[in-house]
Every structure is written in structure tokens, then in C-alpha cells.
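Ticket #4471: structure export looks truncated?
Reporter: QA, pipeline team
Priority: medium

Steps to reproduce: submit the single chain below to the structure queue and open the exported record.
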Amino acid sequence: MSDDEKSKIRLHSISFIFQFFNLMPTLTVLENIELPLALVGVNKLERTKRARELLEYFDLADLSYRFPETLSGGERQRIAIIRALANNPKIILDDEPTSSLDDENSQILIKLLSDINRERKVTIIFTTTDLYERVPATKDYVMKEGRLKESMENMR
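Actual output as written to the record:
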């Protein structure tokens, strides 16, 4: 597979949610959600429509014209998730999704990710340094030194 083919797969099938959200500070929430769609050439009208639909679906439309610095940590995390969903990925890679959230927001986030997985049929792979963090996963694995070591089933 060529590098171009790999890039197309990453661009169209895989989304990322970064530990520190990586929302663009000079863009509004709506514009941040539109960004991945702009990268794949979706026209402005369609980008805005898709972003608004996602914000409404997740009951966050009132945040559309705010900037990331005005959002709480939980709101930033949910906007990062919505942005990851913008291009209808098959896989979302989520780096330490609960690391910057309090317990209540962590539970809200875990439920949201579980709902996205179930309702939208998106595979969600996320990392955590807390082996005992409870998530409703179908499979859990331990990675050490860059290699999959064992299933969490063997550790329980």
C-alpha cells in the first residue's frame, strides 16, 4: 500500500481525540468541528450543516459560537469528540480521554463513548495509564514497551 493510500485511509476512516483536545483557539466551536471536513474537501455549506447537526444531536448547539478558552474541560472534551465524529470515521483513537476530567465528567464521557460505539457502530480505541479504570469495552488489552502483552481478562 502506498503512502498516499495510507493517508487517504487515515483521513477518511480514522479520527483522533487528543489528550489535551487540540481545539484551535482562534476558531469557534462550530469552525473547530468543520475543520476535518474542510481537510477532505467538503464545501462550506455542507460542513456547517454537518457540524450543526452534530452539535444539536449532542445538545451542545448553544456552544456553537464560543471559543475553546471559554469552555469547561468537560465541554472541550465533548467538542473534541464531536469533531472526531464529523467525517463519519470507522475508528476513533482516543488518548487518555478522562485524564483531565473529574469523576463525574469522566463517567459522562465514558457513557458518551459507549453510546457512540453502540449507536453509530464506531470502533473506539483509547489509551489509559489507569489499569483499573472501568470502561464498557468489549476487549481490553495491556500494552507494554510498544507491544500488546495480554488481555485484561487474564488479569481480573
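Status: closed, not a bug. The export was complete when the record was re-opened. Leaving a note from the reviewer for reference: The radius of gyration is 16 Å.
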